[in-house]
Amino acid sequence: MAVPVTAAAEPDRQVSARHFVRLKLRVMGNNFRGQGWRIALFVAGVLVGLWFAAGGFLLLAAPGFAGEPRYALMTAAFGGGLLVLGWLLLPLVFFGVDETLDPARFALLPLSRRTLVGGLFAAALASVPVLTMLLATAGLVVTAGALGGWPAGLAATVGVLAGLLLCVAASRAVTSAFATMLRSRRVRDLAAVLLAVVAALLGPLQIVVLAAVQDADWDRLAGVAGVVGWTPFGAPWTVGVDVAEGRAWAVPVKLLITAVTIGVLLFWWSRSLESAMVGAAGAAPTKTRRAPTGGAVGQLFPKVLGWAGRDRFGALVARECRYWWRDARRRANLITIAVVGVFVPVMVNLGGPGFAASEQGVEFTGDSSPVLVSLSMLFVGVLASVTLANQFGFDGSAYAANVVAGVPGRLELRARMVAFSVYVVPMLGVVSVVIAVVLGEPGWIGMAAGALLAAYGAGLAINGYLSVLGAYSLPETSNPFAMNTGAGMAKSLLTLLSMVVSTAAAVPMVVAAALLGDAWLWLALPLGAAYGVGAALLGSYLAGDVLDRRQPELLATVTPRR
Amino acid sequence: MTGEHPALALRGLAKTFDGKVAVAGVDLDVPAGSFYGLLGPNGAGKTTTLSMAVGLLRPDHGRAWVLGHDVWGDPVGAKRLLGVMPDGVRLFDRLTGAELLAYHGLLRGMDPAVVDQRAAELLDVLALTDAGRTLVVDYSAGMKKKIGLACALLHGPRLLVLDEPFEAVDPVSAALIRDILHRYVVGGGTVVFSSHVMEVVERLCSHVAILAGGTIKRVGGLDEVRGARSLEEVFVEVVGGRTATGEELSWLSR
Q1: Which of A251, A406, A438, B252 is surrounded by the most beta carbons within 10 Å?
Q2: Parallel, antiparallel, or unpaired: how do β-strands B215-221 and B207-212 relate?
Q3: What are φ and ψ of residue B210, in 5° steps?
Q4: GO MF terms on file (chain B) (predicted)?
């Protein structure tokens, strides 16, 4: 009975991946307890997922239904490749990654790295997006089965499952590695540059691809699809087609490629996972900063805020400014805005019309129109403002300080808008200059800036409301991409909603661009700026009133449950 | 000093979370100038009660007054007189200590020159000047408690409400905090704090209330509550503790 405490007791049962999956499902279930709206959001999210799954299924199964073998390889290679790319990049840019099971929680348990990674991987598989993916990619099985009988269908089934594993492993490895990088303040600049480079590569790449599509015949495209099929992006998805087309020997090779890729990704993940666990458990960076200068108030205000009054409003703005840079989560958002804000309009305005202008190919010709520019600017402005949709969630329980001090709601919202604008408005200025220069239409700077400001201001107003009424708590981890499961659905839907409403609010700018012609090139900036500022002020005025009545409730919703 | 109003008055405060009663009707009068200890085991409802008393959590029932100002009816008047150090709540910890103090001071509408002077003094007394430009998030637990206390004291409140001010604090810092609080009370301020460290409460407090299961079980002057016994004995008896001696846990001994 008495066992020496120095001898490690043999565990009675091995911890398997099953335990992690059950733990995750239990945590998800408990999140819903007594929260009707969360269940509703979850169901809505599942329905949206099913809708997309059905669309994807039809698209991928189309060659099979139509009996068109020559499209089958292309659909599988390009469709599957896009899925992998999506899993790789979307969590970084937009959605975040579900961290229901925070790796740091397992730091103290005697689990081998292999068990931990296997378990977390299995838990990551038990999610709605994965099920959605499974449904959609079942289309590939149908195609393979229709074209090559049951052996092809069987091969496609194995391939699709392997591809799914690949997608999840890729998204986990990349976000985990990125989170580790962003956590270290020293590497943050490198991370920003890397993200920018990746995005910068997307632009030219897209133009090249479009040019290729334009003058390529089907044979060349099929050739490209064949090559993609031999990379990890396409390998798992194309095995079914290979069998159907009589290349059964390719199946083991492609599955091996996939398996090796998954192995490498999991190994990479396990490495960054370890540093994430250790980092979260302590080891605060004890670097000595230079000695403080000046009084406490002087230290609080960054140099760019020299104009701000040393009062309540100034203090709120100064604190928010500091936070947008010092909080990894907020900084990740700023970087996203900067990158997406520059490249999406460039791609829309150069690449979009490229479809129509068949002869011009890769040339940088100004195919754009004022309406198209205004529309893409609308998107950028709205995207920038939507970052504030959960601005109180960033603060978490620290918001209690403002509640205790009794900060008036209108003052609070105005200060937050101003602080965010200190970063964003210069960025928007750069975007409008860049887009005008790239299009070779310097006269459009004012119009682009006007549309940007109008959309941004309208977005601030809408998101001011949303941030008071639809706030949710973010987990207190240092992973800027982490969020709770229930909140994941909430975030996506609320973000979508606010973007739609904000866009609608700024549509007059596009209408004016279409109707007013050249006069608009001069009127757009002053009118757009006035519209944006007016909307933001009105929004903070109205939403501030709501905030005054809801301060304690807001604090409760943004405080993470422990 | 502040006349007829008690520093803090609670009437019938109650709060239920998801069908679970956290606080079931608390009445309390904290006389001005007293050093008031709120005792209770873990999960007794101390934090919930104090949160409702200072306006951080809206009660289901009941009201709270700070020196005669209704916390929920006249929040501006009440919050001006109130300094709070919540527990389990993060500070705006991506600021340095000095920046955090400046933020709190300006948020309270103080004059910038006064903020500068008081912040420097507080950082000096609390031995936080050496931290320099270290962010509060990188502070140790004890340092975080001290900067939290400094934030609550900065604007010179008449009533100080502290949730677990001595938790995770080393003896040196604890002695420092005790001294500061003692001086504050001698100077006419009122302190209400929650704790489950009997020794501290017995040394500091003029009044105590024992909270368990969401209601007040004992309340009054320190000597009145403990009588001839030690406070710990009274506490364990009121709360109804259990001691583990017997067959259970036998595997702990070799």
Answers
A1: A251
A2: antiparallel
A3: -105, 120
A4: ATP binding; ATP hydrolysis activity
A36 touches chain B (CB under 8 A): no
CATH number of B1-81+162-170+183-254: 3.40.50.300
How far apart are the C-alpha atoms of A434 and A342, rounded to whole Å?
Answer: 8
Beta carbons within 8 Å of A322's beta carbon, 6+ residues apart: A300, A302, B94, B95, B99
ipTM: 0.91
Lowest-confidence pick of A17-26, A153-162, A344-353, A404-413 = A344-353
Q: Cβ of A552 and B55 within 8 Å?
A: yes
Q: From A343, A392, A375, A519, select the one nearest A454 (Cα to Cα).
A: A375
The sign of the CA dihedral A543, A548, A554, A559 is positive
Strand B8-17 and strand A482-483: the pairing is: unpaired
Phi, psi of A288 (to 5 degrees): -85, 120
Give residue for tokens 């959590």: B57
Cβ contact, residue pair A296, B91, below 8 Å = no
Residue with tokens 């109130």: B82
CA atoms within 13 A on the CB side of A355: 4
Distance of CA A482 to the CA centre of its chain: 11
DSSP assignments along A92-131, one per residue: IIII-EE-SS-GGGGTTS---HHHHHHHHHHHHHSSHHHH
- Name residue B238's amino acid: V
Asked if the Cβ–Cβ distance from B99 to A33 is below 8 Å, we say no
The length of chain B in residues reads 254
Per-residue pLDDT band for A350 (boundaries 50, 70, 90) equals low
The total of other beta-carbon atoms located within 10 Å of residue B250's CB is 9
Asked if pLDDT for residue B161 goes beyond 90, the answer is yes
Q: Is the whole model's pTM more than 0.90, yes or no?
A: no
Question: What would the DSSP string read from start to end of A235-295?
Answer: HHHHHHHHHHTT-TTHHHHHHHHHHHHHHHHHHHHHHHHHHHHHHHTS----PPPPPP-S-
Quote the CA–CA distance of A85 and A171 in Å, as a whole number.
Answer: 9
Residues from chain A that touch B104, judged by Cβ atoms under 8 A, are 401, 405
Residue pair A361/A214 in contact by the 8 Å Cβ criterion: yes
